[in-house]
Amino acid sequence: MGDTKKVYTLSEVSQHNHSKDCWLIIEGKVYDVTKFLEDHPGGDEVLLSATGKDATDDFEDIGHSSSARGMMEELCVGEIDKSTIPSKTSYKPPNQPHYNQDKTNEFVFKLLQFLVPLVILGVAVGIRFYTKQPSS
After folding, report:
1. pLDDT tens digit string along 6-22?
2. Cβ(81)–Cβ(11) under 8 Å?
């Protein structure tokens, strides 16, 4: 198309978020899909749920046909000001102390702290039992 398209901000696009006025952002372009809601094979809920955000990933995940992509051109009303779309944040795990997999020495020490008193107690009971004088 030879004519220049209007540039919209994300907040402008997100105001068009109901069945009487529904706009989407796909691949940097703004689409008014209001008149297509009833004809959309996936139902109008899918389109309505994608308003107010960049719906490119949703659109690509479905795998639209080339004819569907061709229909989009007539629904295009402009372009999005990309600086108004928040950048995607990547997942960063929380900081945690380093896990030491080799805790063998610590385990043995704790085990000995538990077993040594039991062995001493067992020996004491055994000595007491075997050295007890039989009553006459």
Report:
1. 999 988 998 998 889 99
2. no
